[in-house]
Structure formats: C-alpha cells, structure tokens
Amino acid sequence: MKWLLPTAIILIVVGLVGVIVFNYYSFTPSQPGTVRAPFRGPGAIAQGSFSSNGEQIFFTGTSSRDTITVTGGPFWFQMHDGGCANCHGPDGRGGTTVMMGRFIAPNITYKELQKEGFNNDLIKRAVTRGQDEKGGTLSSNMPRWHMSDQDLNDAIDYLKTLAP
Ligand code: HEC
Q: Once rounded to an integer, what is the mean pLDDT over residues 126-148?
C-alpha cells in the first residue's frame, strides 16, 4: 500500500495540468490578425483545390484575398477553426448533429435564407454581427466573422450554388 500516496499525488498533478491546458485553449480569445488554419478534419480538401474563393471560405474559413478572423463559436471550433461547412454541413443544409451534439446549425443555402427573409445585406449582418433576419441575436455557437465585403460577396455567391 505504500504506492497509494505517490499514485494519488501523480493523478492530482496530471489532473491539474489537464485543467490548465483546457483553460488555456477554451479562454484564449481569437487575436485580430491571426491567420486561421484551414480545416483539417474528415472531408477536408487540400487548399488550392477550390474552384472559387467563396468555396474556400465555405470549407476552410480562410480567403485567398484577405485575412479572415473569427471570434466566438463553441470550444472545439476555437481550437480547430474551420469554415461554414463544419457546422452548416458540406451541402450547407445544416440539420446534421454537430460534434458532440450540442446544437444543430440551420440551412444556409441561399434559396432557403431568402425564404426566411434574408437578403445579401442581412446575410452579411448575420455572418459579421451575429444577428438574425429580424435583428435578434444569434447564439454564440455561430461565430462572428471579420472579413472584407469582397470575401462576404464571394461566400454569398458560393451559397447561391448550393441546392436548397
Ligand atoms: C461553429 C459552428 C458554425 C460555423 C463555423 C458557422 N456557423 Fe453559421 N450558424 C451556426 C449556428 C448554430 C447558427 C444558428 C444560431 C441561432 O439560431 O441562434 C448559425 C446561423 C447562421 C446564419 C443565420 C441563419 C438563420 O436561419 O438564422 C447564417 C446566415 C450563417 N450562420 C452563415 C454562416 C456562414 C456564411 C458561415 C461561414 C463563413 C457560418 N455560418 C459558419 C453555427 C455556425
């Protein structure tokens, strides 16, 4: 039984290190000017293989024109980054259970957004300021994106190519 105390101490130390690492990743805010890493998860497409900038933004959250930064979103998103597809699905239709099943992202194909009352300016407002079509606040699971108007237009053009 003389190993019991050392084992307990080791477990406590490991636990504390885990908590520190977890806090570091969950509460480090996104820094302006940070280049976000492309999405590397399943279904990732190598950068450079996109047929448009809008498609690249949709899948990776990065732009070939400008630096895109992002704040908010759930814990795993802040750690791994990614694009619209990570939550809204590769076809933009949402509905799929997102990692750990905490929330379901809505359909953001252009026709569907139009049906709900969004126009281009309101889509831009949703993406950059997290407001729905009526001006209400979207949940913080939807990250707030800081991207140029040109990038927003490219992303919207890509949403138009998705079947509703
Ligand atoms: C980390 C997950 C996540 C990512 C990444 C993400 N979204 Fe969202 N988005 C959400 C969730 C969740 C909602 C719904 C929030 C709510 O209803 O309060 C949402 C809502 C929206 C809405 C409003 C739709 C509606 O019907 O109200 C638009 C538009 C939108 N997202 C566009 C985008 C675009 C464009 C991107 C990529 C640049 C993107 N989102 C990336 C999770 C995400």
A: 97
In the chain, the N- to C-terminal Cα span, in Å, equals 65
Question: How would you class 136 by CB atoms within 10 Å of its CB: exposed for 0-12, middle for 13-18, buried for 19 or more?
Answer: exposed
CA–CA gap between residue 73 and residue 78 (Å, rounded): 7
Model confidence pLDDT, tens digit, residues 76-133? 888 888 999 999 999 999 976 566 566 889 999 999 999 999 999 999 999 999 999 9
Say if ligand 1 is within 6 A of residue 45 CB: no
Ligand 1 center from residue 20 Cα (angstroms): 30
Token look-up 């450079």 returns 48
In whole angstroms, what is the distance from residue 38 CA to residue 46 CA? Answer: 9
User: What is the per-residue pLDDT across 44-71, written as a single tens digit (0 to 9) for each?
Assistant: 445 558 999 999 999 999 999 999 999 9
Q: Is the CB of 92 under 6 A from ligand 1?
A: no
The answer to whether 22 touches 64, Cβ cutoff 8 Å, is: no
CA 116 to chain centre: 22
Q: Which two tokens stand for residue 67?
A: 């630096």
